[in-house]
Specification:
two-stranded antiparallel sheet; 11 strands; 2 domains; 266 residues; seven-stranded mixed beta sheet; YojJ-like (1; alpha+beta
Length: 266
């Protein structure tokens, strides 16, 4: 449906929607890269695209060819040099409520087992680091550990983090009902403090992996037994067994009213 004309250009409602979507995409990319050197190259790429459009509009063939060649090289360099920023942008897209509406994880029983194990580990002041993945996996992190492919259970998690176990040092990676790997190494966050408190290695690792991937991490402090959850680079400390289950169900898109029938039954 035609809305109006600008000279020889006909503007339809589809054109308006198209421009709005492109504007939103460019804005989100700019927000993700803001504060990094990537934003300068991103702005340069936008300028090249605009100049290329103007050159095509006035039929400047030589200028169009030159700008097109430079733009193609620029895009390749942009992708190669700024993978972390692009990965962060894609992670943000994956975390959007619209995407999560279509992602349902088989984690109801998993949450019950995790809560039961974490409460027991907290009581005994045994450190733990449990990573729960969503739609996308973290293959590079899994490859740093020992593959298990074992069904999640309270007993298994407690056994893994037992100080006498060779797998206790590092993170456990869980996908749906499966413990994919243990003894995994996670990337550390650059944040060193939380509410004025200096963070230990487990908490730095928990925040770090959630900054780079669409995961939720449960942490048990070895020093104090405090239970924490990290998600999207944010750490929440001092959780109880009830608040831990509620928080996990909320973050993993599980009905928060679900009453776990097997919790602490073992």
């Amino acid at each position: 449906m035609e809305l109006f004309r600008i000279g020889f250009l006909t503007i339809t409602i589809i054109d308006v929607v198209d421009v709005l979507l492109v504007a939103i995409l460019i804005y989100r990319l700019y927000v993700v890269m803001q504060g990094t050197i990537a934003v300068q190259i991103f702005i340069g790429l936008i300028v090249l695209v605009a100049l290329s459009f103007v050159a095509q509009l006035f039929n400047l063939r030589a200028m169009t060819w030159l700008l097109s060649t430079v733009r193609d090289i620029w895009v390749i360099a942009f992708v190669v040099l700024f993978q972390p920023e692009l990965r962060r942008f894609l992670t943000i897209v994956g975390r959007s409520p619209l995407v999560r509406m279509f992602v349902r994880l088989d984690v109801t029983e998993t949450i019950d087992d995790i809560v039961a194990a974490v409460v027991e580990l907290s009581r005994k002041k045994i450190g733990a680091l449990i990573v729960i993945t969503r739609a996308t996996g973290i293959r590079m992190v899994i490859e740093t550990g020992i593959p298990l492919q074992a069904k999640v259970s309270k007993q298994l998690l407690i056994s893994i983090f037992n100080p006498k176990s060779p797998l206790h040092d590092g993170a456990v990676i869980i996908k749906d009902r499966i413990v994919e790997a243990a003894h995994c190494t996670l990337p550390l966050s650059t944040k060193t403090q939380h509410d004025g408190m200096v963070l230990g290695m487990r908490h730095l690792a928990a925040i770090g992996v959630t900054e780079q991937a669409d995961v939720t991490v449960v942490v048990v402090s070895e020093e104090t037994g405090t239970i924490s959850i990290a998600d999207n680079g944010i750490l929440v400390r001092g959780l109880t067994q009830e608040s831990l289950g509620q928080k996990l169900r909320s973050l993993l898109n599980v009905d928060v009213d679900t009453t776990p029938s097997t919790l602490f039954s073992q």
